[in-house]
Amino acid sequence: MPDNNSTMKELLRLPVLVAAFGYLVDMYDLFLFSVVRVPSLQSLGLKDDALLHEGALLLNMQMAGLLIGGIIWGVLGDKKGRLSVLFGSILIYSLANIANGFVQTVPQYAVMRFIAGIGLAGELGAGVTLVTEVLPKRIRGYGTTLVATLGVVGAIMAYFMADLFQWRISYFIGGGLGLLLLVLRMKVMESGIYEKTKLQQVRRGNFLSLFSGRRLFRYLQCIAIGLPIWFVVGILITFSPEFGKAMQLNAPVVAGKAVMLAFAGQVFGDIASGLLSQWVQSRKKIIFLFILLSLTMILIYLLLPFREVQTFYIVCVLLGFANGYWALFVTVAAELFGTNLRATVATTVPNFVRGAVIPLTMLFLYLKPHWGVLHSAGAVGALTIAIALLALRRLDETFSKDMDYTE
């Protein structure tokens, strides 16, 4: 067992802390839009059906930015270095955050959400890549758990900031936090493993090279194991008021509260999955455990005949806890690929999983008129669980894998 003092000293190194607080600010902004969407659009003069229609447009613009940004930052992270992404991404989404606080029209808002999405796409992948490369393999799971946990804390913080301040001020706070963190990042050094790879005659950041043979299979496996997480977030929690109505609860469900509680549960899930992974020295076993836990909670959410809204909120917390293998999922993506492609994979994979919400939601809406809200969600959820388990079955164990290699 590693010495506790030396482990803590390693985890409190500046690169780890900078990556962790960067993801906190990242998730603050990503979640903040979901919280302030309605009041911000109302202040721009929209009401009734326009709130849903224009809100969906803004969400799609943000998602498009995340998907495009994931590829851009991933390639840059391998070609130019992990720090280039940590600097560039936080600068872009911090300035976009501040600009969001000044918008006066929906088209302006849409452009700013797209730009913010591009910036937000790079933070998690670059941070996890840097952490896995600077920490010893015996404790790097603790490091990535710290990053993911602080990220979820950022989402919870957004809920309370939006409750305390007017929506424009909430955006300014997020932008200001990002710019402050940018100053701290001036002191961070590049990964030694990456610097070593720069001296080798090997192509770095070739995104298209992922689409060949067994490498493509590994890449798709990484994406597949994360699908249940964003099925829960993108459908069960996002549309929680609709599910509450279908369940005939005794009071309406407040979407913002359901999302905040789910993310609060995910904090504890990320901590638990990270610690368990270190204890049993396996990523696969703990991911398998949490996927089964997700299946259990999805069934409880959709099939248990409860009528109290407070019980519903408790189930949201437990769903969030079952979602708490996000850190392990991104860590495995970083560990499965060599240094010359690691940032590309670790940055694109989580954003493609987020993007998978689009086809999952389309399937849910297609089935809804025929099977109803609860049964159609159950079918989509079962599909994501089945795909994730099949992908995990063939996945290599990465707990003890050396990071100093190339593809």
How would you describe what is shown here?
The chain crosses the membrane at residues 12-36, 56-76, 83-103, 109-131, 143-162, 168-186, 216-239, 259-279, 286-306, 312-337, 349-367, 373-392. InterPro entries: MFS (IPR011701), MFS_dom (IPR020846), MFS_trans_sf (IPR036259). Its main location: membrane. There is one protein chain. This protein is mainly alpha-helical and 407 residues long. The longest helix is centred in the C-terminal third of the chain and has 37 residues, at 357-393. The protein is globular. The protein has a single domain, classed as MFS general substrate transporter like domains (Growth Hormone, Chain: A, Up-down Bundle), CATH 1.20.1250. The protein has 18 helices and no strands.
A few lines on this structure:
By secondary structure, the protein is mainly alpha-helical.
What secondary-structure arrangement, pairings included, does this model have?
Layout: H1 4-11, H2 14-43, H3 49-79, H4 82-100, H5 106-120, H6 123-134, H7 140-164, H8 167-184, H9 192-198, H10 213-224, H11 227-237, H12 240-246, H13 255-280, H14 284-303, H15 309-322, H16 326-335, H17 342-355, H18 357-393
Helix pairs in contact: 2-3, 2-4, 2-5, 2-6, 2-7, 2-8, 3-4, 3-5, 3-17, 4-5, 4-6, 4-8, 6-7, 6-16, 6-17, 7-13, 7-16, 10-17, 10-18, 11-15, 11-18, 13-14, 13-15, 14-15, 14-18, 16-17
Pfam family, one: MFS_1
Subcellular location: Membrane
Domain Major facilitator superfamily (MFS) profile: 15-396
